């Protein structure tokens, strides 16, 4: 297990990970920034190829993102993939777009995730759910979609990959949710929140409006192992690798190691 808590989500640099040579060059750049931990997401390469490059660069994989079809499929195949990557945590990146406003879908999703999570646990793995802002909507009831997902899934089998930006955009408080989910967050997603012309924007850690001292203290208090930086797209006209350096350096300046 690496000493560093700071991870980088490869989804950020997905345009530069399409071939093995691209991935090799991208990991060179991320290592030069200081990253030693990655989350594998949106990399269209075989797990063995990815693992070869991770090993070459001395990188540890703390998590993956998987699609809905994979979660519904063979848990053994997913566990095999995680074994190859040397990883013990996979999260559902997002449900299908056409189901996000369908309350019945989440009733059906919960037992699927429970079943997959139970099978993964038998292999020493964990399954999680990565939230966006729309899970904080209410579909006619008193609870949000996110609360419903958490209620219907077994905390022994289904974990949360909480995303502090999306929590904020959904009207929630990241620190409150971090503490509420103590023991259920193996990996948390860090990205900052900015408003430009009243429009919400993804931005680098420490460059937006989130209360990072409060968020980090909540993470430390609840023992979250990895803080995975996810910035879906560059802020303004910055190069995405410059963004990854700004976030890394700012977290280090905040005392995160």
Describe the protein's topology.
Elements: E1 6-9, H1 20-33, E2 37-40, H2 47-57, E3 60-66, H3 68-72, H4 75-85, E4 89-92, H5 103-122, E5 126-130, H6 145-152, E6 158-161, H7 164-169, H8 174-180, E7 187-190, E8 192-196, E9 199-203, H9 212-222, E10 226-229, H10 240-253
Parallel strand pairs: 1-2, 1-10, 2-3, 3-4, 4-5, 5-6, 7-10
Antiparallel strand pairs: 8-9
Taking the sheet with the most strands, its summary is: 8 strands, parallel
Helix content: 40-55%
Distance between the termini: 14 Å
Q: How many β strands by DSSP?
A: 10
| CATH class identity | Alpha Beta
Q: What is the third-level CATH name, the topology?
A: TIM Barrel
Structural class: alpha/beta
Quaternary structure state of the chains depicted: single chain
Number of self-contained structural domains: 1
Radius of gyration: 17 Å
Secondary-structure element order, N to C: EHEHEHHEHEHEHHEEEHEH
Percent of residues in β-strands: 15-25%
Uncertain regions spanning at least 5 consecutive residues: none
Write the CATH homologous superfamily. Divalent-metal-dependent TIM barrel enzymes
CATH-defined architecture:
Alpha-Beta Barrel
Gross geometry? globular
Strand arrangement within the widest β-sheet reads 6-5-4-3-2-1-10-7
Number of helical stretches of at least 4 residues: 10
What is the residue-mean pLDDT, rounded to a whole number?
Answer: 97
